[in-house]
Amino acid sequence: MLRLFFLFCLLASRSGLALDLKECNRPLGMESGRIPASKISASSSFDEESTGPQHARIRTETGSGAWCPLNQINATSSEWLQIELPVDTVISAIETQGRFDNGRGMEYPPAFLLEFWRPSLGRWARYRDRHNNEIIEGNSDTRSAVLRVLDGGVVAKTLRIMPVSEVTRTVCMRVEVYGCTYRGPLKTYNMFDGTVADGLDLRDSSYDGSARVGRYLHGGLGKLYDGVTGEDNFEKHPHKWIGWRREGPSASVVINIEFTSRRNISSVSLHTSNFNRYGAAVFDKAVLSFRPAVTSRFSPRIIEFEYVADKNFETARWVRIPVPDRLAVEMRIELFFASGAEWLLVSEMRFESTKTAFGPMYTDPLDEEIQIEQRVNSNSLTYFAVGDASEDYSRWISLGVIAALSSDSLPSAFSSTSSAAAESRAKNSPRRSSRSRPEFSCS
């Protein structure tokens, strides 16, 4: 039974991991009390007992009816209500309400800013909508609750809601936060930002990391992993796309991805534009490189995927790149412009992967280390077809599972034969050191 449970864990843990905002709209617990008062704080309070942050629960009348900061609010105020969540969470919407207090309240937040923090980001970032605006419209009275859905999900462990106003005024507010637990494999993605040209702004405006010299985005997440896919006509709806304009005859775009943990990757999917009439086309080739461990460099075993150009249909589409079960803590995707295309546009990424069942010391002996430079050098790399069989370690797992099941459910004579065959295979297989043996778990 234990062996059957192991097999179930091995198979059931594989999943396609992408943000799905349709399933990410639950209230997180301000109104219900699931978020405890100890996790709600504020920059200041007019009166800690009657208008402290513990009274900032939407549709709830406690104390004097809401949280009220000590100071009046204007366009440059920095008062905040802070909510700490138990784990990294995808935030999809914010709901606000003023202080009603059974008809005695007169204060409400006409607008607010949203700032967020998570451990992998290491700093406070500010939410911006698809038009690059930071100010979110709030309330116009003390009684009504207003729900504001964000343009894309943001990943946060701690939130700060900061009321602002064009004119100086007293503000009080109650809130609810909507979202879901973040279960995605991505820690960050890093790349050169998109292009602004011909009146089109195709930059990653929601990227919450930092920008280095030369428009290189580093250390954050943004449009490529926010749960929103672009529409066919990118000129009419550019805000959901990140786009790069061709800058040379053999132009390419490189996206470096860091995972939250070591993953066993089985596919990568990219949502891309093929709007040929405005010069956009799906990439004609993708080259994938993998870094199997934090202490190693990139493996020389890359995957080269070629896409057959589609000149008939201009719809945006998901392009899935199969991966023959490659271990990675980091991954590099290089996309090459299609012949004759002026633009390459991507709006979203998703991955099929599992958290690896191998111990941290395990490395595949075929993964000899190389240093990946800014461009892939085809002369120094061995190309593998996408349809290649899984590597030795995958066969090793399969044999172990089959042997485990056989010992429980098959006649003993057959089990003995299987054991003898396994011993023979072990003698003919490359020797693995004891510290390289995988440690299995269901996590």
Automatic annotation (TrEMBL):
InterPro entries: DDR1-2_DS-like, FA58C, Galactose-bd-like_sf. One of its GO terms (molecular function) is ATP binding. It holds the Pfam family F5_F8_type_C. Residues 24-180 form the F5/8 type C domain. Residues 410-423 have a biased composition (Low complexity). Residues 410-443 are annotated as: Disordered. GO terms for cellular component: axon; perikaryon; plasma membrane. It is a single-pass type I membrane protein. It is found in: Cell membrane; Cell projection, Axon; Perikaryon. Keywords: ATP-binding, Cell membrane, Disulfide bond, Glycoprotein, Membrane, Nucleotide-binding, Receptor, Signal, Transmembrane, Transmembrane helix. Residues 1-18 form the signal peptide. GO terms for biological process: motor neuron axon guidance; positive regulation of axon regeneration. Belongs to the protein kinase superfamily. Tyr protein kinase family. Insulin receptor subfamily. This is F5/8 type C domain-containing protein.
